[in-house]
Amino acid sequence: MGLGGTSDTAPLDVGGFEVGWRDAKGEHRRPLNETEEVEFETGLPVRDFPSYRGQRNFPGLYWSATTGGHVGFESWLERDHAMLLDFTPEVTGLLSQPLWLFWQNDKGRVVSHAPDYFARFEDGRGLLVDCRPLDRVDERSAAKFAVTRLACEAVGWGYRVVGMVDPVRMANVRWLAGYRHPRHATTAGMAERLMAVFSVPSPLVGQASLLGDPIAVLPAVFHLLWAGRLRADLAKPLTDTTLVSRAEAW
User: What is the pTM of this model?
Assistant: First the structure.
């Protein structure tokens, strides 16, 4: 699917955008304004994630608690943002390389762009995400990102170009992601007891130890923090004395 042209400026008519996507039934392509009912988050990636000897980036698969399946990534940066989307309680669906967006530039050549992620929110909103260190956004990429934003605005989706994440926050989210799997969920009774003891901001380990050996209780606390039922200030390193509380008390 060629990029073509020296200019990637937007078509004058937003109806000129087309979208290509894949699902279990095959490949599809339609005008963007005719895809309102398409559940892009349940489809298949539109392109592969190559892996080869000497590769400078780091592709792989991230297991998503949101989808119960794997989400592809092509760099550690993409992996981190997949994790952050997975960590967002309002996100209900997530797919990497979800679609091709097509348009004609001012030279009449077809331009295409495959954003890194499509996320669906619980209120039905869609979000396209492109991951790129902001100091590595060249003129051509910036033009494509600008057009992608116009396309998203035309259909009521959000759009973000995201770069490096605050390292402390990201380290905390990676730690909590280790407890994202449902196997770390405890019985409903224990979860409710944890919600009760953290009804007001309280020190992480000290309060958890009220319910038993911290080695046994803390995995459940971390799972509830991942799920968003408990909250803490993730802009600071998680420690024994980090204040944790129920989300509604935060």
Answer: 0.90
